[in-house]
Request: fold
Amino acid sequence: MTDADRFLCEAIELAHANVEAGGRPFGAVVVGNGQVIATGVNETHKSDDVTDHAELLAIRAAVRAHGSEALRGSAVYASGHPCPMCLTAMRLAGVSEVVFAYSNEDGAPYSLSTAHIYDELRRPFSEHAMKIACVPARIGGREDLYAAWSRRQAK
Amino acid sequence: MTDADRFLCEAIELAHANVEAGGRPFGAVVVGNGQVIATGVNETHKSDDVTDHAELLAIRAAVRAHGSEALRGSAVYASGHPCPMCLTAMRLAGVSEVVFAYSNEDGAPYSLSTAHIYDELRRPFSEHAMKIACVPARIGGREDLYAAWSRRQAK
Reply:
């Protein structure tokens, strides 16, 4: 059994345990320097918060336990195809490798695929399900927001 | 002043206050039925967690204060162009409208743009900065994960 298979099976076991506890079939482990440094399962059944995905919670747990630097160059093993929210969270965190066991194709018959959101993200905002617009509001008499941040950074 | 301008200015004021508190220049308000039901600012300076974006925290705060149903059909007004993580979180939460004041183009001179991540998401995984792969690991002798979830759902 390769390391990838071992960590994926750990993620799948977490997902099974989550199903048995009434949750959705998703688990994830974060691996740094060959060791599991954090895990997560989908907690939407407990929190009612649709952003409580296994991978996002695993990333948040890893940061809280080991600091953000521990994520740099880490790998995330997920039972299922990460959604774009989680994939971007990993990207922002400096994760270098993402491996998953169940594809969106595997999930589609169970409505467990986020392929439609990936498809949307390939298209201009005008073709998304949400109405998305830039309205360049500015507060009169205020220093520009980004310039104010930049000035403070330079101090 | 339109409602959009008013809510955007509220998000920008939150971002200014966050800058003054040592944080990054991002704020967001969630609006349901014409009222602000939750707000958020970027808290990465406090938590060291790169996923603590204003919009994601505003969504999480809205769910915790009002339940997930309050997000359905809501609008999010953000000071800056939402990143793909936050945009997907809004999509998953059932937000129907997203308005932002500062574009990625406004942010680019300050390295406050996530256009490069949007660009990546338009391309196949093989062209992303992270190595991303499906390895179809399965646990021998175990019921299929998604079938197990489906069976439990049917109960």
